[in-house]
Design goal:
The chain is 58% helix and 10% strand. The protein contains 24 helices and 16 strands. Strands 1, 2, 3, 4, 6 and 7 form a six-stranded antiparallel beta sheet that branches. A four-stranded mixed beta sheet has the order 5-11-10-8. The longest helix has 32 residues. The protein is globular, with a radius of gyration of 32 Å.
Length: 610
């Protein structure tokens, strides 16, 4: 047994063990970070302390915003991807112009290298962000042909056919929450794989469950909006305006106009009304259903987030353009249309740099040695080569079909059916249509909508146009609809006639009288030649040729665009130039450049007679 400390049983000072105060020990001990923070907040407040406090407050505020505010988080995500591209672009230009003092050819070569690497990264960012970014990418892939660098147009073009879709579970939850009914109650069948996924929504094919006995099940398409799109709309448009200010400040007003245009696209009940109104108008002018079909709305499935419409069978215009280019390329022994497309894009730009407008178009623009003989025969050469390519393609398809039939006789139906199923899953439907006629119909119908009706589809990009089996067009997606008053339609029609007459003075006068204001950046006024060229861009042709000013001076077009500034843009100019740009872009993409004023001249005359 141990002897007590001290030996005599008494406690000494050295033997006293501090007793624990259990009442105080129950108070939690603050972490060192918190203690340091409290210490930081005690006076005296030195300059270093104040700066540190401000830094911590800013950091905590930004961290809270990122965690709880989706718009702010989306802005950070956008600029995390875009900022390096902007910085690299500025550096390439600065080094070439200021440090290395390169000539224009070397500068363009360096910019092309930058574009080759940046274009796929921009598309990757667009797809990652989704929403309105995809919509802008779709528009630019259409109107950019011959205007934007080809690397960007090629990279953006796949967006016309859609984006990666959302899962069935997510879509069904949106439908049930929006309609208040179960998927089983609504549909007899529902295809979980969407037929299209766009920037703000995706579309599924389904069959409506009959509402009463004796009623037939109805095949429909169901358009379902992604729930976060409306919430993030404001942040997305603000980011795009800032990016436009950095990359292309001359287009800032266009970027701002997108905000107003896209607001209405986020309510499907408004799109349903647009479909009804445009159908009535087109029937009034005798083009629906004879030339075009606009899908009918299913009235009892129509909410701000879900819209059911009649199903139309057809091939998208973007697919038809690609298939034609592939057929022509194959007819000349090439693997596909990619090489052909690159050559056509180069020839299209050369065409625009010579003044643009309607041309023989198509394959006459190739300038390939194998095709030089075609140019001897004038405008009919395009039709001849397309016919030859179609016939050759048809003979090959017939040979394949015959081979499959022979295979079925030798091997039995089961094996052949498997082959057909596999083949059908990998290839899109082929369009057997007159593409030139389809494009003329597209231009004609939208001329009627803009100049006669005053209510028009403001987003007719190739992914929204179907080529139906009977040769008519299916006009889809009326989420964005533009409207012009009677007075604005008259002014637009007068401009079309002045442009078709090549009347520079009359065109300039109309633009000035309607309130359109543009000046050089030094504040000096522009002359009639500048106003006429701008109006041509808006409502006639893509013309990249140098401009001869009224004083005799010749100015490069890109220099002109960078040295002028729009101050006032009347609504009819804004509406008309967006639609005109899309239609000119679609035709350029198909290698069929047009003079829009020439195509719309008869419609403009009718509008003024009324």
């Amino acid at each position: 047994m141990c002897k007590p400390a001290g030996g005599d049983g008494k406690e000494t000072a050295h033997d006293v063990v501090p007793r624990t105060n259990y009442a105080l020990s129950s108070v939690p001990v603050l972490p060192s970070f918190a203690r340091n923070l409290l210490k930081l907040l005690r006076p005296p407040f030195t300059a270093r302390k104040v700066l540190l406090i401000l830094f911590l407050a800013s950091f905590l505020s930004l961290a809270s915003l990122y965690a709880f505010h989706r718009g702010f988080r989306r802005t950070v995500q956008f600029w995390r991807g875009m900022a390096p591209l902007v910085a690299r672009y500025k550096y390439v230009k600065f080094r070439a112009e200021r440090i290395d003092q390169c000539d224009p050819e070397e500068l363009e070569r360096r910019l092309n290298v930058y574009r080759e690497t940046s274009a796929p990264r921009i598309v990757e960012l667009i797809l990652r962000m989704g929403g309105i970014y995809v919509k802008i990418g779709q528009v630019m892939s259409t109107i950019g042909q011959g205007l934007l660098p080809q690397q960007y147009v090629d990279a953006l073009r796949p967006l016309q056919d859609g984006v990666p879709p959302r899962s069935y579970d997510e879509i069904s939850a949106i439908v049930e929450d929006s309609t208040g009914r179960t998927m089983h109650d609504l549909f007899e069948s529902f295809d979980e794989t969407p037929i299209g996924a766009a920037s703000v929504a995706q579309v599924h094919r389904a069959t409506l469950r009959p509402r009463q006995e004796g009623e037939e099940a109805m095949p429909i398409v169901l358009k379902v909006q992604y729930p976060e799109v409306a919430e993030l709309f404001e942040a997305d448009l603000s980011n795009l305006e800032i990016a436009t200010r950095l990359f292309a400040p001359e287009n800032l007003e266009v970027a701002k106009s997108l905000r107003k245009r896209h607001e209405n696209e986020l309510d499907f009940t408004k799109e349903a009304e647009n479909l009804r109104e445009c159908t009535r108008d087109m029937q009034k002018y005798g083009v629906e259903p004879s030339l075009v079909r606009i899908p009918r709305v299913v009235e009892d499935i129509c909410t701000p987030n879900v819209l059911a419409m009649e199903y139309l069978e057809g091939v998208s215009l973007s697919d038809a353009i690609k298939q034609e280019q592939d057929r022509v390329a194959k007819a000349f022994g090439k693997q596909d249309g990619e090489e052909l497309k690159r050559v056509l894009a180069s020839r299209m730009r050369e065409h625009f740099e010579k003044g643009g407008g309607a041309g023989s178009g198509g394959m006459n623009m190739l300038g390939d040695r194998k095709m030089k003989i075609l140019n001897l025969f004038g405008p009919t050469a395009s039709a001849a080569i397309r016919t030859y390519a179609s016939v050759k393609d048809g003979m090959e398809n017939a040979a394949i079909s015959f081979a499959k039939f022979g295979s079925r006789l030798r091997m039995g139906r089961g094996q052949d059916n498997l082959a057909l199923v596999a083949d059908g899953g990998q290839n899109k439907k082929k369009a057997n249509v007159n593409l030139g006629r389809a494009l003329k119909t597209l231009v004609h119908v939208h001329g009627i909508q803009l100049l006669l009706s005053g209510t028009y589809n403001a987003d007719p990009h190739p992914g929204n146009i179907l080529l139906l089996p009977d040769g008519r067009l299916g006009l889809l997606d009326y989420g964005m609809v533009g409207r012009l008053s009677t007075k604005d339609r008259e002014v637009a029609a007068e401009t079309i006639l002045a442009l078709s007459n090549r009347d520079k003075a009359a065109t300039a006068k109309i633009y000035r009288d309607s309130g359109y204001k543009v000046s050089f950046r030094d504040g000096s006024a522009v002359d009639d030649a500048v106003l006429h060229r701008f109006a041509s861009f808006h409502l006639d042709r893509i013309d990249l040729s140098p401009l001869k000013l009224d004083n005799g001076e010749t100015i490069d077009l890109m220099k002109l665009l960078h040295s002028t500034r729009e101050q006032v843009v009347p609504s009819w100019v804004e509406e008309g130039r967006r639609l005109g740009g899309l239609l000119m872009g679609v035709n350029a993409q198909a290698a069929r450049p047009i003079s829009l004023a020439k195509e719309w001249r008869p419609i403009a005359k009718e509008a003024l007679r009324k």
